[in-house]
Specification:
Distance between the termini: 45 Å
Order of helices and strands: EHEHEHEHEHHHHHHH
Number of strands: 5
Strand order of the largest sheet: 2-1-3-4-5
Strand content: 5-15%
Number of domains: 2
Number of helices: 11
Shape: elongated
CATH superfamily of the largest domain: Response regulator
Helix content: 40-55%
CATH architecture of the largest domain: 3-Layer(aba) Sandwich
Largest sheet: 5 strands, parallel
Low-confidence stretches: 217-224
CATH class of the largest domain: Alpha Beta
CATH topology of the largest domain: Rossmann fold
Length: 224
């Protein structure tokens, strides 16, 4: 296992290296202070398994840095390790392709378990990201955030989320094909992927799960 830590704080880099090395005996944990040097290492290490990326870096930083990593090395999952854990930052990172978001204040065991989840193909999001928002429109903002985070956690693509929404509205595969202009074989593959992500085996169970995500039939009836 080979993991790269990109963080400009030397002491934090060293601490994270020590924790991450516990993931697996013999794990190699590399570390640099900026994205440009990180790109150089990624180019020289084609067997890189994971990148842990701070957003507050010198030079290329923030969401643009994350987007650059995803564009240059799409096969390598990137987990954001940040001192920020507010909902907008988390949502922006997930939308930009992060495989997870871990606040730097997280205990070591949370960090390790989150990385194990990502390495197994899942996504990790901090509970703080679902904390109720304050001020006007708080409920709507919370519902929208919960929906986005839930879909991201499940690993559903935008197309699979559309299929789930139509499935929850009671549409057959043939109707889904027509509405999304997809081949029936493609729709069947998406439905199977949705079932796996939700951990269900029937369309009824999937519809119930969709309702919990705010993707029920009533949602489908709303004008776009």
């Amino acid at each position: 296992m080979k993991i790269l830590v990109v963080d400009d704080h030397p002491l934090l880099r060293e601490a994270v290296q020590g924790v991450v090395a516990r993931l697996e005996p013999g794990a190699t944990v590399l570390a640099v202070g900026d994205s440009e040097r990180g790109f150089a290492i990624a180019a020289a290490e084609p067997d890189l398994d994971l990148v842990l990326l701070d957003l507050n870096l010198p030079g290329l930083a923030g969401i643009p840095a994350l987007q650059a990593w995803r564009r240059r090395y799409p096969e390598v999952p990137v987990v954001v390790l940040s001192s920020a854990d507010d909902r907008p930052t988390v949502l922006a990172a997930i939308a930009a392709g992060a495989a997870g978001f871990i606040p730097k204040s997280s205990p070591n065991e949370v960090l390790l378990n989150a990385l194990r989840l990502v390495l197994a193909g899942g996504k990790y999001l901090p509970p703080e990201a679902l904390a109720p928002a304050a001020g006007s429109g708080a409920k709507a903002a919370r519902v929208a955030a919960e929906r986005a985070l839930s879909l991201a956690t499940l690993g559903l693509t935008d197309r699979q989320a559309q299929v789930l929404k139509l499935l929850a509205a009671g549409k057959s595969n043939k109707l889904i094909c027509r509405e999304l202009d997809l081949a029936e074989r493609t729709v069947k593959a998406h439905v199977s992927a949705v079932f796996r992500a939700l951990g269900v085996t029937t369309r009824t169970q999937a519809a119930l799960a969709a309702a919990k995500l705010g993707l029920g039939a009533a949602d489908e009836a709303k004008p776009s």
